[in-house]
Amino acid sequence: MKTVTHGDLDVLSSALDDRARADAMSGAISVDVDGTPVFRRAYGRADRAHGIDNTVDTRFAMASASKAFTALAVMSLVGDGTLRLDTPVRGILNEDLPSIDDAVTVEHLLSHTSGIGDYLDEDDDGSVDDYVLSVPVHELATTEGFVRAIDGHPQKSAPGERFAYNNGGYVVLAIIAERASGVPFHDLVRDRVFTPAGLAATGFLRTDELPGDAALGYLFEDPSSLRTNVLHLPVRGNGDGGAFTTVGDVSTFWRALADGAVLPASVVEDMWRSRRDVESEGLRYGLGFWLDQAGPGIVLEGYDAGVSIRTRFDPDSRTTVTVVSNTSEGAWGPARVLREWLRDTD
Predict the structure, then answer these.
(1) Which residue(s) pair with 206 in the sheet?
(2) DSSP-derived secondary structure letter, 157
(3) Using one digit for the tens of pLDDT, what is the confidence trace for 140-175?
């Protein structure tokens, strides 16, 4: 990939803005170099019913992009000896979740190679307004509350055999992190990830009591539709997703990782080392992070009812591009513009 100039980023920013406006996007877009904004703009409404606009400081849900926080918390426990990458999770789960193969390890879960059955299988066809959770959403406020939700899904393949993106696997990581450390998962992530990274606006918010600076998640793009995702997702996110953040905090997060503020730089570099080539996504996967197929970029992506986000960090140029929306599909038009731009700059 050729060296990207500020002029190139100005072209990208203009293209992202054009697409966001053409799509009537609801959300925010940010482009910055080492924390210095090149472009930052908000679109649409955080609360349609009350006419409250999104701003560049609005807190948006992250869906699966927050799997990175789980991976980092788990790796911090590996670093202090509480866990090992080769720790079999059965010894921590005990009699819970008996369908999980005894050979499944922490590393299998981190790299989506555990082969366990998934409670939210991404291969299942469905509509964004489907009710997909098997237990009432209000019961999914604590980590242990998820045990019943993810139980009973048969093993699909042998541990280590193949890559299969797995939401339930990251819930299992949260369960074992909480049990092994003796610290509630949300507190563990706050203390070991958010605080050292300096993420003042990031946290696992309850969707039934969102603060005034957080965007409601809307199922449909039509700005006249008031239907939110409050009955479609866990009331409080956990290991597989659901944190809220701002575009500014996302940039801060990437730079904190690169600078070794959360974990030693050597550990982060290893998490950013490719474990699997995922041709269907046009990406590779490390531990908790997607990677460019060819190029230096580290990528996080999330998609859920009322949530869509893609953020990419180039550790060489320290450039961050983030597109986040408080609708189910809103981020994908600008995200395609970013992918096309990256291909053209190869």
Answers:
(1) 236
(2) S
(3) 999 999 999 999 999 999 999 999 999 999 999 999
Nearest by Cα to 34 from 9, 64, 16 = 9
What domains are there in the chain, each with its CATH number?
6-344 (3.40.710.10)
Task: Dump pLDDT digits (tens) for 35-92.
Answer: 999 999 999 999 999 999 999 999 999 999 999 999 999 999 999 999 999 999 999 9
Q: Categorise residue 232: left if φ over 0, alpha if ψ from -120 to 50, beta otherwise.
A: alpha
How far apart, in Å, are the Cα atoms of 63 and each of 22, 156, 251, 325, 343?
A: 24, 24, 17, 11, 26
Candidates 80, 87, 77, 121; CA nearest to 107 is 87
| Other residues' Cβ atoms within 10 Å of the Cβ of residue 142 | 15
- Picking from 344, 337, 235, 341, the residue whose alpha carbon sits closest to that of residue 25 is 337
- pTM assigned to the model: 0.97
Query: How far apart, in whole angstroms, are the C-alpha atoms of residue 111 and residue 139?
Result: 28
Going by C-alpha positions, the residue among 331, 310, 307 that lies closest to residue 61 is: 307
User: Rounded CA gap, 234 and 135, in Å?
Assistant: 9
